[in-house]
Amino acid sequence: MPDLTLIEAALNGADIGIIRDEAGLDERETASLARVRLALQEAGAQVQDLDFPSRADLGTHGWGLEVLLYEFKGDLNAYLAGVEHGPRTMQEVIEANDRDPDRLLRYGQTLLHAAQGTRGDGGEAAYRLARTRDLNLTRARGFDTLFARGLDLVLFPGLRGYHLAAKAGYPSVAVPVPRDGGAQPGGVLLVAPAGADALLLAGAAHLNRVLGGVRFPKG
């Protein structure tokens, strides 16, 4: 069982890499990132700007859904196997949706049909190829390269980078960033190495405190 005790001043002395090559940042993302940079320095972190190492190849493959489609059927069927009242397989979910399209098919079920068309056991050659490619781009040539430089956490503006962390299998957490004058809040995404969940959560909690905490609107 991993030790998830949170260190109160987790960012003090931590090395944080801020990904700078995300294209097309909007005003909210830019303002939030600037505020977070100051907050990290106030918390005692060492901050450096970096490009994501495999960025040049992510434009072609970074958003591919092949792995999701091939894994979805087997995982969902395993989850639904314990259901006593309701659909117990992906096929039964599709059929239930088709029986009540006005209520259940607001966004369609294209992905469900695509996933249902796979074997669902992870044995297809196309799945193995896509999984190997994803791990190479996001883990071996991506986050592992950054963490090998001594970084404790990697930070993305907004929620950018969440799919890269998910493909790599590395933990991530979004931290809201309050803005002055009642403006819509922004946020950043923190990513940690595999097994560093405690550091990730402690760092997010520390950053949240330095930023002044989350302030929800009344009503």
UniProtKB/TrEMBL annotation:
SUPFAM superfamilies: Amidase signature (AS) enzymes. InterPro entries: AS_sf (IPR036928). It comes from the Bacteria. This is Amidase. It comes from Deinococcus multiflagellatus. The lineage of its organism: Bacteria, Thermotogati, Deinococcota, Deinococci, Deinococcales.
